[in-house]
Specification:
227 residues, alpha/beta, seven-stranded mixed sheet, 8 helices
């Protein structure tokens, strides 16, 4: 059974023109919310013909493309090469604009552990730990991100079914558990640089581990009970 979520409402919406460092420009509709369970200032960006995408969905057509993107000050704003967050953000905006849909900008820096802790984790990574091991060494979870607010935002926007723009199977699993129908998971591109090679390798290994665990769980659940 999907988890029951508190009702959120749209607080305000405003049109904002965006221009990225490579010159790509578009206009988005930015939504803010009341009643999100963690009380943080998360945003939804309506991209391209998002209203038409909602109409097509309501008529039984294709689900809109949606990306939940976790905030990364170092990558999104300062262009850090230690991760791939900045390029992923720009790719998501461009791809969603082409089809119409939403980018959910979630305020959960550093896989949910916060900015200062993320920088502490960087120091541990410099000493040889991977991104997940560093979080654990700080006494935190490997990945503390929670997509409950993303599910709330989608419900409020009238988006019960999505094509999820993500290579992270945990996002699909969490959103499905929260009542969002993930019709398809669309992988993101790989943005490899010398500075983020280890980071991307750790992410790929973790995604493969998660998918294997989910496949095992599904096979076990489908297996008939012993008589």
């Amino acid at each position: 059974m999907p988890e029951a979520l508190p009702v959120a409402t749209i607080r305000t919406q405003v049109t904002v023109p965006l221009t990225f460092p490579n010159g790509y420009a578009t206009t988005v509709r930015v939504f803010t919310f009341k009643g999100l369970v963690d009380g943080r200032e998360h945003l939804a960006l309506g991209l391209g013909d998002w209203a038409g995408a909602l109409d097509r969905l309501a008529a039984g057509g294709e689900a809109p493309l949606v990306r939940p993107h976790s905030e990364c000050l170092t990558g999104d704003v300062f262009g850090s090469q230690r991760c791939d967050c900045g390029p992923q953000l720009q790719e998501a905006v461009q791809r969603i604009t082409e089809t119409g849909g939403f980018l959910l900008y979630l305020r959960q820096e550093g896989r949910g552990i916060g900015l200062y802790a993320k920088l502490d984790a960087y120091a541990l990574q410099d000493a040889g730990l991977d991104t997940y091991q560093a979080n654990v060494a700080l006494g935190r979870g490997e990945d503390e991100r929670d997509y409950t607010v993303a599910a709330q935002m989608l419900t409020t926007l009238g988006v019960p079914r999505i094509r999820l723009l993500s290579s992270n199977p945990d996002k699909a699993e969490q959103l499905t558990r929260l009542g969002v129908d993930v019709a398809e998971r669309v992988p993101t591109s790989v943005f490899l640089s010398p500075a983020n090679a280890g980071y991307l390798a750790a992410k790929a290994a973790k995604a493969a581990e998660t998918e294997a665990a989910e496949a095992l769980t599904t096979r076990t659940a489908d297996r008939p009970a012993p008589k």
